[in-house]
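Researcher: Please predict.
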Amino acid sequence: MLHLSSADRNMLSGARGDGVRFAMRMIVRLAEQSGAERLIDVCWAHVASAYLQGPPNLDFARRIAAGNTTVAIPTTLTSCALNLFKCEAGRGTRAASELIDIYKDMGCDPVMTCAPYHTREEPGFGDNLAWCESSAVVYANSVLGARSNRYVEFVDMCAAVTGRVPDCGLHRTAERRATVLFRIANMPDGWLEEDWFFHVLGILIGLESGSALPAIAGLRRTTGVEQLRALGSAAASSGSVSIFHAIGITPEANSIKEAFHGQPPSAERLIDADEIRRTAAMLSDDSDKPLTAICVGAPHFSFQEFQALDSLLGGRKVAKNLELYASTSAAVIAELESANMLERLMKADVQFVVGRCTYYHPAMPGTNGRVMTNSAKWAYYAPSGLGASVLFGSLNDCVESACAGRAIKTGAV
């Protein structure tokens, strides 16, 4: 049975306004359906409700904002339907802007990114969050050791308004126990240092995990945050993975024993080089059409990834027959400007996309043709999302192709 605190009952009674009562009723219904016995506080909400997909988004926003409702905790907004780097005008622009404005008036921070951890101090180990966006959730749970279920739009905003969520799922220690072990073995020299490898590994982990919680053994202890982020975003795209444990690397997996809470794995799976090659091949189709665009930044590019892009470009420019799109956040754009990198990348004809993702409609010019990407997430979603023909490669492949104006594959994938 669900037990509510006096503050919970106060919100449910309407003492804090009609919008808060509406939100609390949804949180209570979710708790009852999940079998939670109580609600818990969350310290940060990251919400998808400001992404305009249709009239219901505006209807909900107006409903929850009724009576001057404000958010109860720090709340950031995920990607939207607009490219905020340029002043877009067109069908749906006014409605998309109105939706964002409603949430801004409620106290939300319009960071408009799927990587909110780039915009303010990262949450700490054990912090309870109410985050949307699969790649953000898996990053928070796995890399940071914070705690969040994957909160869908509307529910995420209800959590922001009340500051409360059901005590269930990945908020509970027992539910964070790994159940299946993937062992990495017999990889060619250098693969475990390459970013593309982690994108591909993530797709494979997602496809093979099903409802199981994966742990991965055999990665280098020096595996970087960007590589873990790539792994998690890909696994969350191809499967339902909201947390993984990398043995000896991520904070809840100093050992196999710790990751599995002292229990044996329910299954073990060996991953070898042939499986990585087969999975990488799945991310490209057999089209021989000329490239029309190159897309990087899914999840949104970090400052460190832009440094790598800038270095690989080496002063060269993107070919006239191609567009090189880099999706990121306004926060990272500000970092690039401070580092005197933004102007250099713009002179190289890198096209910045801020606030949105390029594998969704409305399609950016060229992205519904033949597209190269270094993102397994982009490669997995874009064929169905845009009807794009995809060629997956490393970031180096993307840069060399962009400068040459044609597809160039230089690496192992």
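Model: The longest strand covers residues 323-328.
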